[in-house]
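Researcher: Here's my situation. A collaborator sent me these components and asked whether they could plausibly form a single complex. I don't have experimental data yet, so a predicted model of the whole assembly would be a useful starting point for our discussion.
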Amino acid sequence: MLAVLTLVTGVAALLLAAWCGWAAYRDQPTKDWHFIGMAVVSVLALIQLVIGIVALARGERPDQGTTIFVAYLLGAFACVPAAGFMSLGERTRWGSVTVAAGGVVLAVLEVRLYDIWGG
Amino acid sequence: MTAVEEKPARNRLISGPGTLLVWLYGVMVVGAVSRSVYQIATDFGRAPLAYSLSAVAGVVYGFITYSLVRGGERARRAALVCCAAELVGVLGVGTWTLVEPSAFADSTVWSDYGMEYLFIPVLLPLSALYWLRRTREQAPSAP
C-alpha cells in the first residue's frame, strides 16, 4: 500500500514539475490550474503521511528507523505547499521554476522514502 | 512559508531568480540541519567530523537563507561572504572526502561535492554568487 502510494506521489510530483517547467519555458507564472495540481500532489503526500503513521501505529517498522521515516514523511508533505506559497509571491516565470524544483525535490524524497521503508 | 513583504527601501534579493535560490537554500537548510541533528543526537561517536561538518553546513545555509529573505545591501554582502565560504567548504570537504575517505566514517552533506544531493551543494553557491553580484547594480545605496 505504502509502496504504491510512494510511486504514485513520486510520478505525480514529476508531472507537476514538468507542467510548471513548461509554464516557465513559456514565460508564464503559476495559474489557478497549477495550484489545483499542487493541491492534488499535496493531498497525495498528506494521505501518504496518514497511512505511514497508521502503519507505524500498527507496529510495522521501517528498515532505516522510525525517526527518519517520519521526518521524510513530514518533509514530503510540506515540500510542494511551501514552493506553492513562494510562487504566490513571485508572479513571474521564476515562481513556476520554483514549483518545478519543488516537484523534483518531492520526487527525490519519495525515492528516499521507498528506501527507508524498505520497498 | 516565506513572507514576502514590500519594502522598497531595501534591495530585494528574492525577486525573480532569487525565489528559486531561497527555495533551494531552504531545502538544504532542512536537509542539512535535520540530518545533523538526528545523527549527532543518536550516534555522534561514529563519525564526529562528518556530523559536525553537516551541522556547520546547515548553519551556513540557514544564515544565507535569512540574508536573502531579509534583503538590503549589508545582507547581500553577508550572503556573498557566506556563499564564498560555502563554495570553499564544499570544494574543500569534497576534495578531502575523495583524497582521504578514511577521515569520514559516514558521509556529510558536502561529501563528494554533494553528490548525494544531486550536486546542488556545489551548484548553489555558484549561482548564488552570480545572482548576488548581479543584484548589486540596482542597490539604492552603494557604500
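Model: Some features of this prediction you could bring to your collaborator: Chain B has a mean pLDDT of 87. Residues 17-136 of chain B form one domain.
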